[in-house]
Amino acid sequence: MEYILAEKTGGCVFCRMASLEPARFREGHVLGVLPHAIVCLNRYPFAAGHLLVAPRRHVADPSDLSSDEYASMMQVVREAAARLRRAVRPDGLNLGFNLGTAAGAGIPEHMHGHLVPRWHGDTHFMPVLADVRVMPQHLDDTWRHLSPHFANLETC
């Protein structure tokens, strides 16, 4: 609720995150800013540890990326998935991109991929019957847990 009720600043959230100094990563829930991509926590997660990987450049579609930008971003997705698996030991992962509002993109003007850790029985009946999500961990605690696993991401 703190995030939902907070005053919203203009501009693109991913572009703001990409320009953060490392000392401010925690407040932005950013895990890494690389030459062509950023990794951050989803502010509205489907599960604890729900990550987003976005290109640094403000584009809506993968076809707008250069070959180098696309390759770099997908390498970051692969590396983030491996680190997320080590950090939270999920039973599986959902990986995907929602391109355009009709496809479910909440921020359609800046493409981003989702990495969602999943555990057997993690959704149970709550979202189906009660339209409720249960989050076992606060975003700040999730960032503190994941941050050491992503500390040297730029060297990979």
Description:
This protein is of the alpha+beta class and 156 residues long. The protein has one domain (2-151): HIT-like (HIT family, subunit A, 2-Layer Sandwich), CATH 3.30.428. It has six helices and five strands. It has helices at 2-5, 13-18, 25-28, 67-88, 126-130, 139-150; strands spanning 30-33, 37-41, 51-55, 92-97, 113-118. The chain has a five-stranded antiparallel beta sheet. 25% of the residues are buried.
Features:
alpha+beta; globular; 156 residues; single chain; five-stranded antiparallel sheet; 5 strands; HIT family, subunit A
Q: Would you summarize the structure shown here?
A:
The protein has 156 residues and is α+β, with helices and mostly antiparallel strands. It has helices at 2-5, 13-18, 25-28, 67-88, 126-130, 139-150; strands at 30-33, 37-41, 51-55, 92-97, 113-118.
List the helices and strands and how they pair.
Layout: H1 2-5, H2 13-18, H3 25-28, E1 30-33, E2 37-41, E3 51-55, H4 67-88, E4 92-97, E5 113-118, H5 126-130, H6 139-150
Antiparallel strand pairs: 1-2, 2-3, 3-5, 4-5
